[in-house]
Amino acid sequence: MIGEFIRWQVLTWLGVSALAFGVAAFVYAGETAFARRSIVTSGTVEEVRRSGVLYTDDGSSRVEYHGRVRYTVRGAEVVSNRMRLAGCDVPVCPAPKEGQIVHVAYDPENFNRAVRTSAAGLPHWPVPGPVVWILGLMGLVPLIGAVVNLVWIWPVLRTRSWFTLAVSLRQPAAEGREAVDEVFGDVAGSADAVRDAAVGLLLAEGGSSAGGSGVRAPNDPCRSRRR
User: Fold this and answer.
1) What digits encode the pLDDT tens for the residues 161-172?
2) Does the keyword Transmembrane feature in the UniProt annotation (predicted)?
3) Which of 75, 81, 170, 185 has a CA that sits 20 to 30 A from residue 220's CA?
C-alpha cells in the first residue's frame, strides 16, 4: 500500500512537475538565446494599430499598440507586420506615430523575428514570456500536490498501515488463546494451565525413560499408584 502510494501519488506528480518545468526551461532558454544573439538596428513605423482596452482587478486600464515596422538587415529591407510598439496605462499612453524611427532587435538567424527595444539592446536575462509563466504554474501545481502527499498524507497512511499490520500479527495469537481456553477450560481452566500440564507430562516421560532414576514430575499420578 505504501509503495503504491509513493509511486502513484508522489513520483507521478513529481514526474509531471519535472516535465512542465523542463519545457518551461527549454522555452526560456530560447528566449535568452535570442536576447543574447540579437542585433540592434533602426526601423521605421509604417502603420499603427491599437488593441482593445484591458481592465485589471485594481480598476486601472491598459492598452497596447502594434504596427508594421520596416528595417534593414544586411542591405535588405524586412517588414514586421505585427510588432509590439508600446503598452501603457490609459489615459496617459502616448501612441506611436507613423514615420517614427524606433530601435529594433532582430535575430541574425531569422530576420523576421524582431522586437522593439532600446538603443542598448535586449537584456541577457529578459523577463519570461507568458508561455514560460503558464508552464511554470503547470509545474508548480503538481509539485505542491506531491509535497502535500509526502509530508502530510503519507505519514498518516504509514501510521495506519503499521497499526493494521500490528493488529493482524497479534490477532491470530489472541484467537488461538481463546480457542485453547474454550476447549480445555473444564480441565485446566486456562491456556496457562494447559501449558503447565504439558510441561509436567514431558518431565514424567523423561523420568520413566531414565529407568526409574527417581525423577518424577510434580503431581505424578504414577507415584500414588505404586505406593
Assistant:
1) 766 766 666 655
2) yes
3) 185
Distance CA 104, CA 122 (A): 10
What does the DSSP assignment read for 54-109?
EE-TTS-EEEEEEEEEEEEETTEEEEEEEEEEEEEESSS-PPP-TT-EEEEEEETT
Contact by Cβ (8 Å): 139, 17 = yes
At CA 184, angle to CA 181 and CA 190, rounded to 5? Answer: 45
| C-alpha cell read off for 65 | 499598440
Q: Residue 227 belongs to what H/E stretch?
A: none
Question: Any idea where the domains of the chain sit in the sequence?
Answer: 39-121
Backbone angles phi, psi at 66, to 5 degrees: -120, 165
What are the CA-CA distances from residue 102 to residues 8, 57, 88, 92 (Å)? 54, 32, 17, 20
Backbone torsions φ then ψ of 38, nearest 5 degrees: -70, 155
Q: Would you state the pLDDT for residue 192?
A: 53
Tracing cell 538603443 back to the chain, one arrives at 119
Cβ-based neighbour number of residue 69 at 10 Å: 28
DSSP string for residues in 145-202 = HHHHIIIIIHHHHHHHHHHHHHHHHHHHHHHHHHHHHHHHTTTTSSHHHHHHHHHHHH
Q: How far is CA 164 from CA 5, 6, 24, 161, in A?
A: 16, 18, 43, 5
pLDDT band, residue 208 (cuts 50/70/90)? low
